[in-house]
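Memo to structure team: turn this sequence into structure tokens by end of day. - J.P.
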Amino acid sequence: MNEQTLSIPVRGMTCASCVAHVEHALRGVDGVEEVAVNLATERATLRFDPQAVRMADLVRAVQETGYEVPTETVILPIGGMTCAACVAHVEEALRELPGVVSAAVNLATEKATVTFIPSVVGLADFKRAVAEAGYEVLEAPAPGAAAEDEAERKMRQARFRMRVAWAFTVPIILWMLPEMVWGIMWPSHLAFNLGMILLAAPVLFWVGRRTYRSGLSAALHGFANMDTLITLGTGVSFLTGPASFFFPVANYAGVAAMIMAFHLTGRYVEETAKGRASQAIRKLLELGAKTARVVRDGIEIEVPIEEVQVGDVMIVRPGEKIPTDGVVLEGESAVDESMATGESMPVNKGPGDEVIGATVNQEGLLKVQATRVGRDTFLAQVVRLVEEAQGSKVPIQAFADRVTAVFVPIVLGIALLTLVAWLAFPGLMRNLVAAGSFLPWVNPNLGTVTLAIISTVAVLVIACPCALGLATPTALMVGSGMGAERGILIRSGEAIQTLKDVRVVVFDKTGTLTKGRPEVTDVVPAEGVSEEDLLRLAGSAERGSEHPLGRAVVERAQARGLALADPAEFQALRGRGVVATVNGTRVLVGSRRLMEEHGLDPAPLENVLRRLEEEGKTAILVAVDGRIAGVLAVADPLKEDAVAAIGALHQLGLRTAMLTGDNRRTAEAVARRVGIDEVRAEVLPEGKVAEVRRLQEQYGRVAFVGDGINDAPALKGADVGIAIGTGTDIAIEAGDVTLVRGELAGVVEAVRLSQATFRKIRQNLFWAFFYNVVMIPLAVMGWMHPVLAEIAMATSSVTVVTNANTLRRADIRFSG
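Reply from structure team:
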């Protein structure tokens, strides 16, 4: 067995028991022979079979025990790839490196997304592995304009090669017409054949040399790609030119030039379409401010955005972009945040409000203190997330990848068998050609060797692994980019595929279905207790709480002008309430469960509780020194688009559910107003994951919508976690899908986006497979002229890219 020894870092261990847990977890991975974990160095040394063990399995085993293997993700620009076969070989080269957890290569963006263990493997290893596979890790272009310039440069070069190719190919076509129509080789047989060779040579060996270089490089590294097929097809065709002087074979040198010209035309159209598909990131990069006016030593100066530091005070005048994320110190204005949220209405900002870098100040002068700069800004995080999503893969692509891995060798085998069949069974093959003689370009009267060459070359040039390689990533690029424009950030292609299969969308109540700004609406004291005393004691007890309901009680007491005391012996009990001592008085504020745990019976106020809860309000009981003192009712208004969004999800065929810690009557009252199908009430925060699992068992795939901060376990436990928030407040890394706007319309748009994007992916994969399944047999039968075969191949690639670009904003937009 080819065993490998590797040392990986493990974080979070504190004692010998931790060491034992990690060792046990790693030994449980099939293929691991020996494990030794060192607490002092915080490393695990393993001996394992690399054919049986993936690095991702080892990392997952450690994580499932509650420890961490630190990893990083890097995006590498890759040069020299032309088709899906290239993608497969680059991925294989990277994945075989010890320490690489995952590697996904995107042909459309020409980038590799690599997750790795930094202390085990690094950039130099990636460059070496990619170079050994026959490709190159390029220097990453600078952000913004440089990225635009790179895309423009590729399109410009592709356009130049296409134009030069046609400059030589058009004369070839015109010269061939008399021979094709009247059988006249003008001015002579020798001049015609020599002219075809001379005109074809620049097309193949000047502007087509990159294709030859890529095809030969692949062959030298032990595999074949699409350029290998084109190299063989055009090479064989070109060699018939010199051969025609010595053997009875037709001169197809001109045809070789035509094949290359159509191939380069397809490349140009492909580059143009790929440029359109990748516009989203370029648009995001262009949004950033290039300079900032900052106050230093009391003087306002203009500096490049790279020189802005955390704590700098920036001056932003009307019409200018806010240079970086910050907080308003002085001034009031309306700020256009559409670049971040997709919301066209400006947002009013004043002292203490957070602002997002690259948003536009519309009215007043603002003084903003920078809080995040460089890679930490909201815009930088969005760009990074979109890039990672575009570099990921959807599960449906796994089948395409398996086909791609063997596609080119199979095509080479079919081409070889075609040539052998023609030479071994010319009568049978000629009968196949004769059956297609109704096609104007099929001539069964040509010589056997000529027909054999035509069929073999057609097989080589008609096969299109390029379409397979572009089918998924182009649709993913357009979909994730369009989502970013609407404030929908998708972490991976897997999330897109899973979201379109979701059967139930589960909502947290507070801050998700509601605005998260609860207000006290009713104060109902028990007999012998005044409203002021009830509010004062409850407000004083809640001063130590960070819960929105607790803050609402404090705000109501302060609004009444009551003097609140600082609580002593404060204790917050998750999902139940608070217990505190206020000026020597023991105060409980919370749910029925809290009262019952302390031996108190809320029955005397049951009618009041029922009435408030049936009105959709949250009833909070207050007890003072072992006696129920009254009830406070808190209502959190629903978001304006809640009813419309739930209705839209129902129209999409989805079931909806709500999880809340509220009592059942209150929860059901809210659910009725919104139109929620199913309610899971009185769920403690730690019980949300269990409820999500029950819904999964009952209905299948589940999406959970929460605030990304308090609902992290449920977001992770659901098939798709959708984190919803507002601007910079949101934890971008929290969910599989992140909604920058705090609106529920984003949930509807995310589902529609996943469905529309996956529809494009499915169409593209169908077209790519259908094309190859239909066209290759026609080429084998001799029914496809090599030039037509190349036109069809180029059309296939262009079709999948163009189809991805037909995804429209109208397909996902929901106005609510």
